[in-house]
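User: Here's a chain of 266 residues. Predict its fold as C-alpha cells.
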Amino acid sequence: MKPIDIDECHTILLSIATGFDKICRNHRIPYYMLGGTMLGAVRHKGFIPWDDDMDFGVPRKYFARLIDVLSKELPEYMRVLMLENDGFTVSNYIKIDDNRTYIADYWLNQVTKIGVNIDVFPLDEGLKTTFQTRMFVSYILFLLAIKDFICIESDKRKGMKKHFARLFRFLFPRKINKLLKYIDRCIMKRTVTDSGFCVNFYGKWGRKEIVTKRIFGTPTAYDFDGCTFYGVEDADAYLTQLYGDYMQLPPECEKTVHATEMYVKK
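Assistant: Prediction complete.
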C-alpha cells in the first residue's frame, strides 16, 4: 500500500462526490451538503483544509431509490456501504467509498477494509411541535449512544465509559443490527410530514440537527473546489445554528481528521 496525503484524499473525495451528484441530478433526487462540507463551501469555497470526508443529506422519501440507483450506476471501484452489506459500517446512513483505497480508522486505530469515503444521511421530518421533536431526538440519541458503547471496544474507552461499554456489550451481544433497524422504524413511524422540521437524526450535532424546512429550502448550488454541489438555501442560519461564529477558524488543537492514515492499493 502507498500512503496518500490530504490533498490526494481531497481529489478522491471529489471524484466520489461528483459521481454521487451526477446520479442525483439524472434521477432528480434532491440532496444537500451538510455539516463541515457545507461550512467548507461557504468559508473556504471548497474543502476545509484538514477535513478528510464529505457529508450529504437526502430526504427520506428518496433514500431507498438513491441506494438502488447508486448500486447500479456507480463505477465498479466505488461501493455503497450500508448496514445490510458491510461489516464495518454500523449505521443507518450510507457510505460511498473508493475501494482502491484503505483508511485507518481513528477510533479503531487500525487499517480497515473501508476506503476514502463520503457519508450520505437520510433527512427526516420531525414531530408536530418543537418540544416533542426535541424529546424524540433525545430518545434517539440515547439509543445511538447505546449502539456506540456496543460497537467500540471497551479498551478504547477511559474511566466509567470503559465500564459502561463492557456492560452494554454484555447486555446486547450481537444485537446492533436489530437496535439500528428498530431506531429507523421508530423514526419513520413517529415523524409527520407537516412538522415544519428537517432532522438529521444520525448527525454529530444532536439537537442542533433539528432545522426548520425554511432554512433547508430549495437545494442551492455552491462552488466547491472547481465543482458545483447543492447545499442548504439559508446557509448562514444553518451554519450559525451548528457552529456559532462559523467564519472564525478553530484553534489548532481542534483541526483534527477522522482517519489517522490513508493508503491507495498498489
